[in-house]
Design a protein that fits this description.
The chain has 72 residues and is an all-alpha fold. 33% of the residues lie in helices and 0% in strands.
């Protein structure tokens, strides 16, 4: 988390050669969820169907920035 936090904030100076930041974002798909054996079996079936039928996953990542007055 500390590494991610350090990469999520900061300043890219106008004269920096590299004006990009690359972050790898992982995600976890919980499966076999539920409180009873019947719920777990039902949810597992839905999860398996989704995994077989969904070809692409799309995530919206929003990035915002503010231009600051350069120091001269």
């Amino acid at each position: 988390m500390e590494d991610l936090q350090n990469n999520l904030s900061g300043t890219i100076n106008a004269n920096d050669e590299d004006k990009t930041r690359t972050l790898t974002i992982g995600w976890k798909w919980n499966y076999e969820t539920g409180t009873t054996n019947e719920e777990i079996a039902s949810n597992d079936k839905i999860d398996t169907q989704n995994a077989q039928n969904i070809a692409n996953y799309t995530f919206n990542v929003i990035v915002s920035g503010t231009q600051v007055e350069p120091n001269t």
